[in-house]
Amino acid sequence: IIHFKIEVIFLKSIWENDCIIDKRETLESDINVSTLVIGAGMAGILTAYRLALLGEDVAVIDSNRIGGGQTKNTTAKITSQHGVKYSTLERQFGKRIATAYAKTNNRAINDYEDLISSLGIECDFRRLPSYIYTMTDRQKIIDEYTSAKRCGLNPVLTEKLEIPVTPLAGLCFENQAEFSPLKFIAGISDYLTIYENTPALSVDRHNTVTTAKGKINANNIVFACHYPFLNFPGLSFARIHQVRSYVIALENTPKLNGVYKCIDNGGISLRSYDKYCLFGGEAHRTGENHRGCYDRLFDKARELYPECKQVMKWSAQDCKTADGIPYIGKFPFTNRNLYMATGFDKWGMTTSMVAARILSHLIKDGKANCSEIYSPSRFHIHSIPTIINESGTAIKNLCMEKFYYPNASIANLHIGDGGIVSYKGEKLGVYRKSENEIYFVSTKCPHLGCQLTWNSDELSWDCPCHGSRFDYEGNVICGPAQQNIAVKIDLD
User: Fold this and answer.
1) 170-199: per-residue pLDDT in tens?
2) What pTM, to 2 d.p., does this model score?
3) CA-CA distances (angstroms) from residue 105 to 18, 48, 240, 355?
4) Do residues 464 and 443 make contact, with C-beta atoms less than 8 angstroms apart?
């Protein structure tokens, strides 16, 4: 147990503070629909909207609120520039796949603009350039420039940026975009049937989804819930892991006319919104928690903007696939009409629109342009090391849960401490909120049984295997786990 005093903070994104979406009813009875979308985030809402335009009878359910998952935590860049993506794709998979990825993501930007214009949605949409830069490896930028050109994009090399850094090299994609995601969802969700606070508890082989108060019979089911919670079919747990990153909103900074990302290890992300600078970074695998992420991020911000003031802070969680390309399409290893959209790897706003276009056409027409590039059934040899590594991580943490027994006790915990302790012969996760207010949880993740770890920055229990998270009271924050982990203990 490491002792420290932690200030209990309420983490809320700038989008939540800026936009309140009208509440929707909870599902109270059985219904029948042609297509059910599980998840009312950006991917789910866009997919449902496009299906509705195509004449499909569609409903959306969410375990929480509309946009209440990862969508509310994004930095909301809409861009086809995804780090050093095109050089990586071209090297591993060839020009055809890299070009298809460029084409679909570039089109997504235009799709947003067209939709926002046609519906008259006020969501602070703005066209602007997107930059990546490096302080350490100029060749990476050159390689990305060359690959992006071959993929039909029009990048521009530069060494001058409006942010106060002097890079070895930078790369600019013109005519990208940014927006306010919850304002956008508030506008588009008015056209849809959505049930909030309606978690999907199970899905049977007949495509019947059971919720707390009703069953939904559907011909097609779309899992747009960030991480598909079905282990079989799909084997998502062997091919996806999750990463956390952190964002702080700053005042006393100049307004930026572009969006920025440093591609170096430990690099930062920047964009403006209203009078604020959204400053992100400190990414790490979920469950491999590093105390002080927000503090380190603010230290980096002050290096660039010494007079800046932090006014908000929050975090995001992103799914990464084994080969770095999102999984969009039909579940593998089944003939059932089950579809997924996941693995957006920090570029969820753009790839949510890509997913909506592909899934809506697959469901309605049975085919979609470029769907084979994103198919969850694909397999690339380059995925093998990642899959092996994922299996090793899972095995290690399963062994920790089964064989590790702590020496620490509740007496070792100071106020504000959390950790794994031994209590009356049991291994338990404990958070001491005050002298007499103590919360107990199981240390075993209900998804597949890995040992949870304590996240001191966010007062949560996180799974290092597949990224499930729980608050200190034991309630699920995000999946794939669907069950809470609270344990009732009588203190003597």
Assistant:
1) 999 999 999 999 999 999 999 999 999 999
2) 0.90
3) 27, 19, 21, 10
4) no
